[in-house]
């Protein structure tokens, strides 16, 4: 049982199904433990390239994705592991990708910053800051033109709201009433720059007024609060009343990348956010229900450990791509 501290409001939990909440908890544990395993694999020099991790932001990915249907799509960022896992991409296929294996979710061609699986509705991540915004608007336009009741959810950070792509995508989505949920993960730092140094707004959601769309700010470390806000936004988009901007205030407890020691984050600030660990907040809330016991949470954690143990074992020995793979997944093949 987690120690006392901030918790998901018990009244929020009473109206939700027990199995649904345990699955929410399992997915957050999966995201967190996946990132912890990857951290050590990278430090051991076993993974090529670099990694940008999302520990501390588990609730934003899981809360939004659990409000989506399997047919809906997401776009992601250079910090994409949690989004992909929350949308249903398997840990095994992502780990094979991180090891450079040809059987990875992007056939070994994407690596950490470009994971995704179109069959799961996870458009391979775009590492350019703000790059997923116009892609999400484009997907939503396609849904509307085809008369499909599908939604695109676009994850992006606070720094992306200062990019031109943000203005362009939100403007286009607003004037055409596109079904896009703009899911802003405001972790207060764009790399090492605090958000207060780039805007005078108290909440980034206030930007939405300039585009004439609805927005709200929620506690991004409370998975149920994120789920409720995302569910409202998804329902609006599906009914033709979108787009919607949802700002989720959260905090990454790791560096911008694995080489970042986070010296720019005040110790007091880090300690305060550590008390608001998303998994612990949900766990403490679940203990107020009466139909969930600590042993139930231990079972979910054990499932995750077993899944990751098996996935890493498979990924370590996955064969690399073949030379013939150079000409697959491209728009044109070389002549001759």
Separation of the first and last Cα atoms = 65 Å
Largest sheet: 5 strands, parallel
Supply Rg. 20 Å
What proportion of the residues is helical, as a percent range? 40-55%
CATH top level class name: Alpha Beta
Total tally of structural domains:
1
How many beta strands in the DSSP annotation? 7
Tally of DSSP helical segments: 11
In the predicted model, the low-confidence regions spanning at least 5 consecutive residues are none
Q: What is the average of the pLDDT values?
A: 94
Name the quaternary structure.
single chain
- What is the helix/strand order? HHHEHHHEHEEEEHEHHH
- Any guess at the CATH architecture? 3-Layer(aba) Sandwich
CATH topology: Rossmann fold
Helix-and-strand structural type = alpha/beta
| Relative strand content | 5-15%
Backbone shape: globular
Strand order of the largest sheet: 1-2-3-7-6
């Amino acid at each position: 049982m987690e120690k006392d501290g901030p918790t998901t409001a018990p009244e929020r939990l009473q109206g939700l199904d027990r199995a649904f909440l345990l699955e929410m908890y399992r997915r957050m544990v999966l995201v967190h433990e996946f990132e912890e395993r990857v951290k050590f694999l990278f430090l051991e020099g076993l993974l090529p390239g670099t990694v940008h991790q999302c520990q501390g932001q588990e609730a934003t990915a899981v809360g939004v994705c659990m409000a989506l249907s399997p047919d809906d799509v997401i776009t992601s960022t250079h910090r994409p592991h949690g989004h992909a896992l929350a949308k249903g991409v398997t840990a095994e296929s992502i780990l094979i990708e991180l090891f450079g294996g040809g059987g990875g979710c992007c056939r070994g061609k994407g690596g950490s910053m470009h994971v995704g699986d179109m069959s799961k509705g996870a458009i391979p991540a775009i590492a350019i800051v703000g790059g997923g915004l116009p892609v999400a608007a484009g997907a939503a336009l396609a849904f509307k033109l085809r008369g499909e009741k599908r939604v695109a959810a676009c994850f992006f950070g606070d720094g992306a709201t200062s990019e031109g792509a943000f203005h362009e995508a939100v403007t286009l989505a607003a004037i055409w009433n596109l079904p896009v949920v703009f899911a802003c993960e405001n972790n207060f730092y764009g790399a090492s720059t605090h958000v207060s140094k780039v805007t005078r707004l108290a909440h980034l959601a206030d930007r939405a007024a300039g585009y004439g769309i609805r927005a709200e700010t929620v506690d991004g470390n409370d998975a149920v609060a994120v789920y409720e806000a995302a569910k409202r936004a998804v329902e609006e988009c599906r009914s033709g009343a979108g787009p919607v901007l949802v700002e989720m205030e959260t905090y990454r407890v790791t560096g911008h990348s694995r080489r970042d020691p986070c010296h720019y984050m005040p110790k007091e600030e880090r300690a305060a956010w550590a008390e608001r660990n998303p998994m612990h907040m949900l766990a403490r809330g679940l203990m107020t229900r009466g139909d969930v016991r600590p042993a139930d949470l231990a079972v979910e954690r054990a499932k995750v450990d077993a899944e990751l143990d098996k996935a890493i074992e498979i990924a370590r020995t996955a064969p690399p791509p073949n030379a013939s793979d150079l000409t697959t997944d491209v728009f044109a093949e070389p002549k001759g």
